[in-house]
């Protein structure tokens, strides 16, 4: 039985993961964590809207880890909190799966440092379908080459705080890496006014926000006389939770290191 601690238990993703754990074969919620000062119940099931489950919920990750001795932590919170969770897990030798987005270079460096001590799965999107899309985008970019312009459009609900989405940025990075371009120089996140002709090397990443859209991403490969579009549409958060549970099963027992869902799904190095 894989024992899991879930952070952000009262949030949309934390609650969904807890609900999915209740029916997951070979896995169980051992504990949960919320932000300091959280005024809600001390039972994780009640926080997730499931009713009382007897799974303890606290506001101190280290204390919960010491109490329940889990096999892995799943963290969908915010990048600052996730970096702190990774450091806590590293200090107590507990693997962690992180699905938060919007990481600054500093926060990512903290996670990378933690990964030198414990296995960490860090992915901007835990969906299996999206991670297959990453592989397809890389393959398409390599085959189509510089003759096709690459543009990415993402649409999410109006309450999403970061822009562009971590998934859109990763899609752009995959395309850039496959085309031999520099993500730091060649990604374009806004166009307004008299910006001039599109350069041959740029990859555009455009953001849309509105309604209750869970998440949509389209990568356009625009050539002369034809256009290839790769689209992923999420209609619920279930697939993110399923992917997180799959990553949690996979990471237990791994060597320390920084992994992603491409590792989990065995897609690394595929043509």
The domain tally reads 2
CATH-assigned homologous superfamily of the largest domain: NAD(P)-binding Rossmann-like Domain
- Which CATH architecture of the largest domain? 3-Layer(aba) Sandwich
Number of continuous helical runs = 10
Q: What is the percent of helical residues?
A: 25-40%
* Secondary-structure element order, N to C: EHEHEHEHEHEHEHHEEEEHEH
Main structural class: alpha/beta
CA-atom Rg in angstroms: 19 Å
Please report the total strand number as a whole number. 12
By CATH, the topology of the largest domain is Rossmann fold
Poorly predicted runs are: none
Name the overall outline. Answer: elongated
Strand content: 15-25%
CATH class of the largest domain: Alpha Beta
What's the N-to-C terminus distance?
35 Å
Brief sketch in words of this structure:
This protein has 271 residues and is α/β, with parallel strands linked by helices.
Explained architecture:
There is one protein chain. α4 packs parallel to α5 and α6 packs parallel to α7. The chain folds into 2 domains: 149 residues, 3-Layer(aba) Sandwich (Rossmann fold), CATH 3.40.50; 107 residues, Dihydrodipicolinate Reductase, domain 2 (2-Layer Sandwich), CATH 3.30.360.10. It has 10 helices and 12 strands. The strands form 2 sheets. The chain has a 7-stranded parallel beta sheet, with helices on both faces.
Topology:
Layout: E1 2-7, H1 12-21, E2 27-33, H2 44-47, E3 57-58, H3 61-68, E4 72-75, H4 79-91, E5 96-98, H5 105-115, E6 119-122, H6 128-144, E7 149-156, H7 166-179, H8 183-186, E8 187-188, E9 203-209, E10 215-222, E11 227-234, H9 238-251, E12 257-259, H10 261-264
Parallel strand pairs: 1-2, 1-4, 2-3, 4-5, 5-6, 6-12, 7-9, 8-9
Antiparallel strand pairs: 7-10, 10-11
Helix pairs in contact: 1-9, 4-5, 6-7
């Amino acid at each position: 039985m894989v024992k899991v601690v879930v952070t952000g238990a009262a949030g949309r993703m934390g609650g969904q993961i807890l609900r999915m754990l209740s029916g997951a074969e070979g896995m169980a919620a051992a504990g949960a964590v919320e932000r300091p000062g959280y005024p809600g119940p001390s039972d994780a099931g009640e926080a997730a809207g499931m009713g009382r489950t007897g799974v303890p919920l606290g506001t101190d990750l280290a204390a919960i880890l010491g109490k329940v001795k889990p096999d892995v932590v799943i963290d969908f919170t915010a990048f600052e909190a996730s970096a702190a969770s990774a450091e806590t897990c590293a200090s107590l030798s507990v693997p962690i799966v992180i699905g938060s987005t919007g990481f600054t270079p500093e926060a990512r460096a903290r996670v990378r440092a933690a990964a030198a001590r414990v296995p960490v799965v860090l992915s901007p999107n835990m969906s299996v379908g999206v991670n297959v899309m990453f592989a397809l985008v890389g393959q398409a970019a390599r085959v189509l080459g510089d003759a096709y312009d690459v543009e990415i459009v993402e649409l999410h609900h109006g309450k999403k705080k970061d822009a562009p989405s971590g998934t859109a940025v990763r899609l752009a990075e995959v395309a850039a890496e496959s085309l031999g371009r520099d993500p730091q120089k060649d990604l374009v996140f806004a166009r307004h006014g008299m910006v001039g002709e599109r350069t041959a090397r740029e990859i555009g990443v455009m953001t849309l926000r509105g309604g209750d859209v869970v998440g949509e991403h389209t990568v356009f490969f625009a050539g002369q006389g034809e256009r290839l579009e790769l689209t992923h549409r999420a209609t619920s958060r279930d697939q993110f939770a399923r992917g997180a549970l799959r990553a949690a099963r996979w990471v237990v027992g791994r060597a320390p290191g920084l992994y992603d869902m491409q590792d989990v799904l065995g897609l690394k190095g595929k043509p």
